[in-house]
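Hi Y.,

Following your request, here is the sequence exactly as I used it, all 222 residues.
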Amino acid sequence: MQARTLDFYFDYLSPYAYFSWRKLAGFCKEHQLTLNPQPVVFGKLLDHWGQLGPAEIPPKREWLAKFCNRYATLNGFEMNPPKYHPFNSLTALRLSLMEVCGEHQYEVVSAIFDAGWTQGKDLGDANELISIINNLGLNGSELYEKTQDTNIKNILKSNTAKAIEAGVFGVPTMIIDGQLFWGNDQFEHMDLYVSGKDPLEVEKVEHSLKNKRAIDRKTVQH
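Below is the corresponding structure, written out as tokens. Let me know if you'd prefer a different format.
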């Protein structure tokens, strides 16, 4: 029987992606799933689907900061957001590609997430990222040089394009057997799905999707 895979689409910009990452290894071990981290460019997802990021909406950004603080306290870990937010996450994402860090991918992703969201490091700074990788006992400068290669840059672009083709519209997104789960609050639903107890009523969903729209909202340009 072929091993089941959980594809995890993420960008370091998202605290929700960090929260999910903290739980994924245990979840995958419990359900005998192979965890497949998929770095993608959140901004490109937003552009494609015509959305704003949470940090681009002032009251939502304030709410998010409060939520994250509460969540960290309730879940027993230190929460110190990145020094700058939003930040340019491209180099961090490229460092996290299997083609760059190879068998150390899980350790690299974990280290970058932790450095950004619990230690308040600047994940947009190349020297900071090199230091994070060095602390793993790896050659940070060597991995950084790989991220500057055109082929590696194109792999991240391709990853993002493939994610969009798969229907990924935000981060974190988890896909299991082609089923898409979005957000850090999806673990209960994923647990039911992989356990063969999914309560989803497909016919009702398909029927609701066929309902005609009575009104469309016009996009407002600020």
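The chain has one domain: 4-209.

Thanks again,
Q.
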